[in-house]
Amino acid sequence: MRAIKLMEADGRRSADSHLIPLPLAGFPGIDIYLKDESSHPTGSLKHRLARSLILYGICNGQIGPETVLVEASSGSTAVSEAYFARMLGLKFVAVLPRSTSRSKIEAIELQGATCHFVEDPAQVYQEAQRLAQCKNGHYLDQFTFAERATDWRGNNNIAESIFQQLSLERHSIPRWICMSAGTGGTSATIGRYILFKGLATQLCVPDPQHSAFFAGWTENDAEARSATPSRIEGIGRPRVEKSFVPGVVDAMIKVPDVASIAAARVLSRLLSRRVGGSTGTNLIGILWAASRMRAAGEEGSLVTLICDSGERYGDTYYNDEWLQQQRLDVTPAEAAVEIALRMGELDPALISDQSICTKC
Question: Tell me, what's the pLDDT at 360?
Fold first, then answer.
């Protein structure tokens, strides 16, 4: 089929994302790596997901040459899906929370897609489904199908890529991989791959302040809800999404928004380029895992993801006026992150003991 060939050609044109070492003075003997998913053609981890979801729909007979594609998204997934829809000559409608950053909206519209807004972020699901029915289209539904559209056993998924790229490193099997959850699809892919291969790696899911995943996992409650929308775009959900697979997770951390944003800003200075807020959440997870290893006298490697570029958040996380409006003072948290990177000491203000839950 022409559509599948077009998408496979895009995959071959796009080299795999880089695995960047991040040497930190505070954690001798512990090698930290960042898998840079911002290098994909649409600038985020969601490029992989969008390709998988659309291929899944085509191969299930749900997407044809005239199908209107509809998605509920906080931004990045819609950017990537709009890219592939344009490639295939399909119309695409993104259902977004009104609070979505202007830069993401512009990126979606640049691909020729239409943005449809809802005031309440919790209503994106129902509205996307309604629109798809009205247009006789297909609701891609990333929050349900992310975990099943990707072949977690291999076939060049992100987990297989990480372990292949680490194969010649001194600690080729990481002690921990830290990956936050939006749909939950990436953490599910990584966790399943670890179990399938019988690896000693453990999976930590750092979760932003206003998200249902942490409560759902710690309380074994698939109906857990968060009444407040997440300020960390791309991750954190008002409900436990169907793509989140709790059984593959070894630890979860509830990360305050100030810590996520501070970590993103500090890491941006280290890398000399901006990263998104979800990458900051991931970095806090890495600092927790590294501190745990350091306290136990362990050596090894840790991996997390740069989920997207921070250039999409110039009007939010990197805007002091926006931070003031949100009543977020990130200065103390930035200092705490810098101390952790330099000295290996994790300030309880970044993560309290009550915000950590492990199986081990």
Answer: 56
CA distance 282 to 284: 5
Per-residue pLDDT reduced to its tens digit, 26-45? 999 999 999 999 999 999 99
Domain 46-146 matching CATH 3.40.50.1100: the answer reads yes
pLDDT in tens, 75-117: 889 999 999 999 999 999 999 988 887 888 999 999 999 999 9
In this structure, which long-range contacts are made by residues 115-120, counting pairs with CB atoms below 8 Å and at least 24 apart in sequence? 115/78
Q: Quote the pTM value.
A: 0.92
Copy the structure tokens of residue 227: 């009444």
Interstrand relation of 19-21 and 30-36 (parallel, antiparallel or unpaired): antiparallel
Find the Cα–Cα–Cα–Cα dihedral 155, 158, 162, 167, rounded to 10°.
0
Distance CA 174, CA 163 (A): 8
Render pLDDT for 125-181 as a digit per residue (tens, 0 to 9).
999 999 999 999 999 999 999 989 888 886 768 999 999 999 999 999 999 999 999
Query: CB of 308 within 8 A of CB of 45?
Result: yes
- Cα 251 off chain centre by: 16
Give phi and psi for 114, each to the nearest 5. -110, 140
The CATH number of the structural domain formed by 2-40+153-358 is 3.40.50.1100
Q: Where are the domains of the chain?
A: 2-40+153-358, 46-146
Closest CA to 22 of 344, 309, 343, 304: 304
Q: Which of 250, 244, 179 is nearest to 37 (CA)?
A: 179
DSSP at 257 = H
CATH topology match: 2-40+153-358 vs 46-146: yes
